[in-house]
């Protein structure tokens, strides 16, 4: 990424973080909360906390750059679309931590564990309130679009995009759970999970929303947008799976080895199992699904993966799919603005480099 592009990215993040804070500052006044309720304001506060605690705002950047494919002028509706994609992300994170029993999110306690701390004697209440918090964030993600100042037709199209993205994400979560009940999920299964769980709401939907806000009709380019998003989604999922074993906990904001402890057949876990036999394989299989697996065991598995070339293999896989995505974006030059096309061409490879 050039310095000019990185400055644009930093400005998107800075501007959006201010926008997000302002949104949550006024949210309670706009929600019809019964005066007797103590739990509802607490729920909003927890959503505020996990939403503003961090995150790369990758979706916000993709959204704004998608609009720049069409025009460099200010575009009505982009702020609402940015809020929508990040609120949908918040919803997914909150639900994800219930599914995965995740204690940490973005360097702090997950919403689920915050509720567990509040209700130590009522675990079902903690689960229920966490699910409801995620549901509320989903509804909020659609509401901000309906309240947008964009033209009515654009608002309706945006709601349709986000509703479809949410449905695809839920199906991706279901397939993700189902995958781990398969003895040996093949590459097609892993790609399907990456497409539904990541690509469609993190890449495809933000690009569609940005194009809609800028007056373009993304349905005219449906196949190539989906192809690009799927390839980036696969590369991004591989990157996340790679970092879960080979990354640094301090940089990730959460412990490594979660996929091993949860028994997930991720890209990295599958590659690891395919590369080892004998005592090494028994070590990995014994740890797979063991929630009490120690950091020392995870470190030993990491060393096995590095010694057997799995880390390098995952890097090569990521780069291959990133290069394919870049090639798709390069084909947009005859249609859209060069600087934004260059961004989407460089983005997949830049993301892979960040895994190192």
TrEMBL record:
It holds the Pfam family polyprenyl_synt. Gene3D superfamilies: Farnesyl Diphosphate Synthase. Its cofactor is Mg(2+). Keywords: Magnesium, Metal-binding, Transferase. SUPFAM superfamilies: Terpenoid synthases. GO terms for biological process: isoprenoid biosynthetic process. One of its GO terms (molecular function) is metal ion binding. PROSITE patterns: POLYPRENYL_SYNTHASE_1 (PS00723). InterPro entries: Isoprenoid_synthase_dom_sf, Polyprenyl_synt, Polyprenyl_synt_CS. Belongs to the FPP/GGPP synthase family. This is Polyprenyl synthetase family protein. It comes from Streptomyces broussonetiae.
């Amino acid at each position: 990424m050039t310095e000019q592009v990185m400055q644009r990215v930093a400005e998107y993040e800075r501007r959006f973080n201010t926008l997000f804070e302002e949104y949550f500052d006024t949210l309670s006044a706009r929600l019809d909360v019964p005066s007797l309720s103590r739990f509802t304001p607490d729920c909003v506060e927890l959503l505020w906390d996990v939403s503003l605690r961090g995150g790369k705002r990758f979706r916000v950047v993709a959204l704004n750059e998608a609009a720049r494919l069409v025009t460099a002028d200010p575009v009505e509706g982009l702020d609402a679309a940015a809020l929508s994609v990040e609120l949908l992300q918040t919803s997914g994170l909150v639900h994800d931590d219930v599914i995965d029993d995740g204690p940490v999110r973005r360097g702090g306690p997950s919403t689920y564990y915050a509720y567990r701390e509040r209700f130590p004697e009522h675990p079902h209440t903690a689960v229920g309130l966490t699910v409801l918090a995620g549901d509320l964030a989903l509804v909020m993600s659609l509401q901000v679009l309906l309240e947008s100042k964009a033209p009515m037709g654009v608002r309706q199209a945006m709601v349709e995009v986000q509703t479809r993205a949410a449905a695809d994400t839920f199906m991706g979560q279901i397939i993700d759970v189902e995958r781990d009940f398969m003895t040996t999920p093949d590459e097609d299964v892993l790609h399907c999970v990456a497409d539904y769980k990541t690509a469609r709401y993190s890449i495809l939907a933000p690009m569609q929303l940005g194009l809609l806000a800028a007056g373009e009709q993304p349905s005219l380019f449906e196949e190539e947008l989906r192809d690009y998003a799927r390839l980036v989604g696969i590369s991004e999922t591989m990157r996340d799976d790679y970092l879960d074993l080979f990354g640094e906990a301090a940089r990730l904001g959460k412990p490594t080895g979660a996929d091993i402890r949860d028994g997930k057949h991720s890209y990295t876990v599958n590659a690891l199992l395919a590369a080892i036999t004998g005592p090494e394989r028994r070590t990995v299989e014994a740890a797979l699904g063991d929630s009490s697996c120690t950091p020392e065991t995870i470190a030993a598995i990491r060393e096995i993966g590095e010694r057997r070339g799995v880390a390098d293999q995952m890097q090569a896989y990521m780069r291959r799919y990133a290069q394919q995505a870049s090639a798709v974006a390069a084909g947009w030059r005859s249609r859209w603005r060069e600087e934004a096309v260059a961004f989407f061409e460089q983005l997949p490879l830049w993301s892979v480099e960040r895994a190192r």
